[in-house]
């Protein structure tokens, strides 16, 4: 039996291009989330989840997400995480020009929010290996650089952890003007909250 179904893609906030699927048909409305990261109140501002002045009647929600598990009882908001990292990076980089931060980001995408906000707040561009992957995200291009002589790095190497053990950055930088660097490694990952917090 054929049925017309309307499928709407809604921003999931997980990484650039990530979406949730809203299926609407004669048999009801279903929301499939996939991995998502929405700020408080963000869903309320999504016009496509509303019909007139009220929220659409959704019969089923499929939460296909890493964190649909009781051990992830509390995950701080993206803003709380950003403020914590910002405070840490600011206090470290203000010690001297030779105090640098390495953001040990395991995925290729999904950290753009962090890079943009650190750059805006501290006036320091974030070093990445290549700009190619960000070409379709013009809003971030002002905040990243391929120049290794910056205090915030998100450069990557196949064996990042091995590089860090030698107190050098994955891009190979170990000193500036003959002065050794002091490297602080930050691993931005939500997984910690399942392991460390009940």
Automatic annotation (TrEMBL):
Its main location: nucleus. GO terms for molecular function: 5'-3' DNA exonuclease activity; damaged DNA binding; endonuclease activity. It holds the Pfam family DRMBL. One of its GO terms (cellular component) is nucleus. The keyword Protein transport does not apply. Residues 138-193 form the DNA repair metallo-beta-lactamase domain. InterPro entries: DRMBL, RibonucZ/Hydroxyglut_hydro. GO terms for biological process: DNA recombination; double-strand break repair via nonhomologous end joining; interstrand cross-link repair; telomere maintenance. Keywords: DNA damage, DNA recombination, DNA repair, Endonuclease, Exonuclease, Hydrolase, Nuclease, Nucleus. The keyword Nuclease applies. It is found in: Nucleus. PANTHER family: DNA CROSS-LINK REPAIR PROTEIN PSO2/SNM1-RELATED, PROTEIN ARTEMIS. Belongs to the DNA repair metallo-beta-lactamase (DRMBL) family. This is Protein artemis. The gene is Dclre1c.
């Amino acid at each position: 039996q054929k049925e017309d179904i309307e499928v709407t893609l809604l921003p999931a906030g997980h990484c650039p291009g990530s979406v949730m699927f809203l299926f609407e048909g004669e048999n009801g409305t279903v929301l499939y989330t996939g991995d998502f990261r929405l700020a408080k109140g963000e869903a309320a501002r999504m016009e496509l989840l509303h019909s007139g002045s009220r929220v659409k009647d959704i019969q089923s929600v499929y939460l296909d997400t890493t964190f649909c598990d009781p051990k992830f009882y509390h995950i701080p908001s993206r803003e709380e995480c950003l403020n914590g990292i910002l405070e840490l990076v600011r206090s470290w980089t203000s010690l001297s020009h030779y105090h640098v931060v390495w953001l040990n980001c395991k995925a290729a995408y999904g950290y753009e929010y962090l890079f943009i906000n650190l750059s805006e707040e501290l006036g320091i561009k974030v070093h990445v290996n290549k700009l190619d992957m960000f070409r379709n995200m013009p809003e971030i291009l002002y905040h990243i650089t391929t120049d290794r002589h910056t205090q915030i790095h998100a450069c990557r190497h196949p064996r990042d952890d091995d590089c860090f053990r030698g107190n050098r950055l994955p891009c190979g930088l170990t000193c500036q003007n003959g002065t050794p660097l002091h490297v602080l490694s930050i691993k931005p990952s939500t997984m910690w909250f399942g392991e460390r917090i009940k």
